[in-house]
Design a protein that fits this description.
There is one protein chain. By secondary structure, the protein is an all-alpha fold. It has 8 helices and no strands. About 25% of the residues are buried.
């Protein structure tokens, strides 16, 4: 199933995942932008982005060395209720940045709130968990490229 088909499926777990990934991108971009004015919340945003990447892109843990503690955290938050509570608390932390200064860091707070609502609706509707993002299979791609090169060479030899 392609990403577009997943998005059109009406599964709010999928909407939650994509809004979480957008939130992560916004946290990084706007955290860098507002680093001086809301320093503690920019740092919190970087930490939240780390959590988002570990939770929403599980094949990253195969590329990055992680310990058993990180795996336990990832498994714990695979439960949609706990994931919703995590995003609600992260959203609340980012909303608190208004107390320090009203900056663009509010945009990730809004997107984290959207993520929380999407996962909350998924719990109420009892939507199936989103399928994991697919890991690129480098070995399969290399084998396919080698086979296409071998076929090209054979057809070129046959033509000569």
């Amino acid at each position: 199933m392609s990403s577009w088909e997943e998005f059109r499926s009406g599964n709010f777990n999928v909407y939650g995942r994509y809004s979480a990934l957008i939130s992560g991108a916004l946290l990084i971009a706007l955290g860098i932008n507002c680093f001086i004015s809301v320093f503690p919340f920019a740092l919190a945003g970087f930490g939240i982005t780390f959590l988002i990447v570990i939770l929403e892109i599980p094949f990253i843990t195969k590329w990055c060395p992680t310990g058993p503690r990180t795996q336990r955290i990832s498994e714990f938050f695979s439960n949609p209720v706990f994931k919703t509570l995590l995003y609600a608390s992260c959203s609340a932390v980012m909303w608190l940045s208004i107390l320090m200064a009203s900056t663009l860091i509010i945009v990730p707070a809004i997107s984290l709130s959207v993520t929380t609502v999407a996962y909350g609706i998924a719990i109420i509707r009892k939507d199936a968990p989103a399928t994991p993002l697919k890991e690129p299979n480098v070995g399969k791609l290399a084998a396919k490229a080698a086979m296409s090169n071998a076929t090209t060479v054979k057809s070129a030899q046959a033509a000569v």
